[in-house]
Amino acid sequence: MTKTMTAVEISEPGGPEVLRAATRPVPEPGAGQILIRVAYAGVNRPDALQRAGNYAPPPDASDLPGLEASGVVADVGPGVTEWAVGDEVCALLPGGGYAEYAVTSARHALPVPRPLGLKEAACLPETYFTVWTNVFMRGGLRGGERFLVHGGSSGIGTTAIQLAKQAGARVFATAGSAEKCRVCTELGAERAINYRDEDFVEVVRAEGGADLILDMVGGDYIPRNVKALADDGRLVMIAFLSGAKAELNFAQVMVRRLTLTGSTLRPQSEQAKAEIAEGLREWVWPMLEAGQVAPVMDSIFPLDKAAEAHARLESSEHIGKIVLEVAP
Fold first, then answer.
1. Would you call the peptide bond into 16 cis, given omega within 30 degrees of 0 as the criterion?
2. Mean pLDDT, to the nearest integer, of 289-314?
3. Most Cβ neighbours (<10 Å): which of 48, 123, 237, 259?
4. Measured between alpha carbons, how far is 228 from 207 in angstroms, rounded to an integer?
5. What is the residue-wise DSSP string for 176-214?
6. What is the pTM of this model?
7. Cα separation of 205 and 248, whole Å?
8. Domain annotation for the chain: domains and CATH numbers
């Protein structure tokens, strides 16, 4: 096996242009880890935050961006028995996906669900781990409940719409154009709300309020989300694209018995991520294999065009997932 690889590193904090090709040593898998020869790597908002200097990787993680990838197992570390060299996998990574090789815990990898290929599989880990843990494990979504997801045409949104629909929920989504709203309804949303033209609070409250809201906007959406919730409703926050601060009357939380919670995926323990992977394998992977849900792909960029992929991501013009082609 080669000892060096091509990777894309962050030369300094800044815009997409700071992403540069570099030569790095091929990482070695430690105990309980696998080495993946990366075919495709997903591009996600946390990558852009890290690039801008606002989301430092954990101390034991690669400094390279990239939190999900698909590919072939190239080596296994001591104690790994569930994977063998040559297996095709997709995996959640602690970092390092923008490279020809990446290491991760063997317990954070999942088989490529057929009939999907490696290209589509690269869209799965970060998004499906996030939606599963926040909508179902933390948010407790149940059939018949009213579910609102903001950013319905994003990778997270398109995934949340499909999984919530499969769970029997009534699904509502916000998006910023007629085309994006059309995609949301085609994926299973009962009502797609163009936030440029309509007030999602009025629309959802007219239906009885949301039992669960998945929010990645933050800022002034936080008090509006609280107003949009039904009594005993839950708000789960996973990002703050419009800021992490808001003024909120917490009397509403008490009187209406609301739950406000949230999480980020990357800092969670290896065990916590392994439990999420187990839930996905049991409940969601059969849906992928049956074609009941599927990743929505926006575009593919070669690894050396990672800066263009980030520019596309931050333009918010994309619908679904953006991936990098590394070594298909």
1. no
2. 98
3. 123
4. 10
5. SSHHHHHHHHHHT-SEEEETTTS-HHHHHHTTT-EEEEE
6. 0.95
7. 18
8. 4-124+267-325 (3.90.180.10), 128-262 (3.40.50.720)
